[in-house]
Amino acid sequence: MDLDALKVPFEEQEIEWRLQSCGEKNGKFWGICLAYVKNRAIQNRLDEVCGPENWKNEFTVGPQGGILCGLSIRCNNEWVTKWDGAENTAVQAVKGGLSDSMKRAAVQWGIGRYLYKLEEGFAEVSPDGKLKGMTKEKKWFRWNPPKLPAWALPDGKPSAISEETESLWNEILDFYNDGALSDKEFEKAEFYKTNNNTEGLKRCISFLQSKKGENGIKN
């Protein structure tokens, strides 16, 4: 049994995204999202690496409420258990708590731990977005998650760059060639491009346009 295989990145479709915070500014919605491995993907990974008969989980009530999950793997004919817990969620409280506690216990074994290296990603707000978000003011909007970087994919290959991203990136390059971008700003914009994060690129362009106006930078 190769336990290191538990740490291999997952396919994009096996990752779910949740909004950490969101709001509305100047009539435009924004959101910051975090990535998590789907619980079903964790179970499949354990089946593949350990075998269905060599892992198990158990649940108990947490010391201050919520749920604790003990995820056990049979190593050299001995069961080794690692625990972690989560609070019950606002929606489907018990089911959500069970799922989240298992995800956290899986991280103790290295499953999906690489996702903690991801920076907070800005959601790509779009009327055609696959996901829904709601602000504190109870306003709904639709959004798509950012693309994962190459190192967070199983084959190490980045996702295809969208046409919109390419167009925005060309605008960034124009600013860079005009000397309007510092190296640090360029690296940040390049990170957004790699992640197919159009909202991040748009914010960069908006900032550069205001900077251009203040400094009188010419094309």
Offer a few descriptive terms.
single chain; 219 residues; alpha+beta; Enolase-like, domain 1; three-stranded antiparallel beta sheet; 5 helices; 27% strand; elongated
Protein described:
This protein is of the alpha+beta class and 219 residues long. It has 2 domains: 3-149, Enolase-like, domain 1 (2-Layer Sandwich), CATH 3.30.390; 160-219. It has helices at 39-50, 93-108, 163-177, 183-194, 198-215, and strands at residues 15-25, 28-37, 55-61, 67-75, 78-86, 121-122, 124-125, 131-134, 140-144. It has a 3-stranded antiparallel sheet. Strand 1 (15-25) and strand 2 form a beta hairpin. Helix 3 (163-177) runs parallel beside helix 5 and helix 4 packs antiparallel against helix 5 (198-215). The longest helix is centred in the C-terminal third of the chain and has 18 residues, at 198-215. It is elongated. The protein starts with 14 loop residues before the first strand and ends with a helix. The model has no long low-confidence stretch (mean pLDDT 86).
Rg: 21 Å
What's the domain count? Answer: 2
Number of helices: 5
* CATH architectural grouping of the largest domain: 2-Layer Sandwich
